[in-house]
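Researcher: I've been going back and forth with a colleague about how Ammonium transporter might be arranged in three dimensions. Neither of us has a model we trust, so I'd like an independent prediction. The organism is Cucumis sativus, in case that matters for your notes. Sequence below.
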Amino acid sequence: MSSCPIQDFSLLQPGFVDPEQTSPFWNNKADNAWQLTAATMVGLQTVPGLVILYGSMVKKKWAVNSAFMALYGFAAVLVCWVLWAHRMAFGKRLFGIVGKPGLALSESYLLSKSTQGCFPMADYVFFQFAFAAITVVLLAGSLLGRMNFGAWMLFVPMWLTLCYTVGAFCIWGDGFIQKYLIDYAGGYVIHLSSGVAGFTAAYWVGPRHSHDRQNFPPNNILHMVGGAGFLWLGWTGFNGGAPFAAGRITSLAILNTHVCTATSLLIWVSMDIIVYKKSSVIGAVQGIITGLVCITPGAGLVDTIAAVVMGVLAGLVPWYTMMVLHRRLAFLQCVDDTLGVFHTHAVAGSMGGLLTGFFAKPSLLRMMYPDSLYGPGFLYAISDKKLKDGLKQIGIQFAGAVFITLWNAIFTSIICYLISHIVNLRMNEEDLEIGDDAAHGEEPYALWGDGEPDFAVILAAAAVTPA
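Model: Here is an independent structure prediction for Ammonium transporter. You can compare it with whatever you and your colleague have in mind.
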């Protein structure tokens, strides 16, 4: 992490405002500007990125509901984050796995020096909120097309509180594995947890309507590609913001992110052509996502050649689990994971965490975490004759994946059980046949339902329009 050098204010003349009031010595303006930019880019991945992606990737009758689930999740997480969740994830320890709940609203707190980086605490709160929000919305991808919106409204704050804050505190805060587990930007905290929790919640909510499950074409492929584009380019802030400084690790992480993603896309499309004799735009989008997810745990900690290798595996392994293994295993078949979040996030995220334990370069680890206890990547442990240290780090990466998986599976189940005693988790069958109009009284293309203008709506609008 970068230090915070004292700035020289000796040239200021009398009459200027006290610089300590506007820019204290610890505030690095370049880091501050970059962190706010990175946080905004992560926010754009969700709104509009995932809002557009979800709204266009589902069947037309679920476009509004799917986009609205993402929009609501983003807003609800922000309110919960500043009221109690931020300090549970990054505050003082309550137990070994979670911090004390508390407000992140006061001027004295938000304008003080951040615990990470050389900028105000408000930057850190906002950046970490954007991470929390996208995690919840990624999870929603498993539940599209059937979850009762009222149940989703309860699910978001409960899951944020009982699941996300625990993973963030344990790995990034002051938790019991923070000093040992390598997770650069959220392969475990964000992607493994959202993939496992989404799959678990999908089990409890139940499958989509049988007709939807058999026939669920995207309603707008071009918009889907646009949403994926927001996700891809926004990952510049996702992995570029993790060092909390505009330094060398930031630059490497951004390059590695895009190299891995491009490689994964090419591999996924190639597999589609080899096996199905036809390239698929939906497949390309899945390849983008798995590449982004796989590189995230080690983006600034591995060489770029390792990022290429990770991209190859990110295109191959999730493709196999989604396109082959999923169809052969009854366990996977019995859970209706609408957008395959388990494969694109749980599989790719856990694989990225293990590969980081293999490829993490000691010099980059020291640059990023000068006071850490992280062992070298297994590849470098072999060359440096520190095999025991390399095996230990791989073991820690595996144990961390098991912990995040079990915690999210258990507590997501508890949350769904509790909510089911308040409201129905799933929409009723009649509403499932209708979709958006039943859930919200709205349709995505209101004036052009089936290719014909709705003259009743047009005439009604004209009647109330002033002359």
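Researcher: What would you highlight for our discussion?
Model: I'd start with this: Strands lie at 93-95, 98-99. After that, consider the following. The first helix runs from residue 19 to 22.
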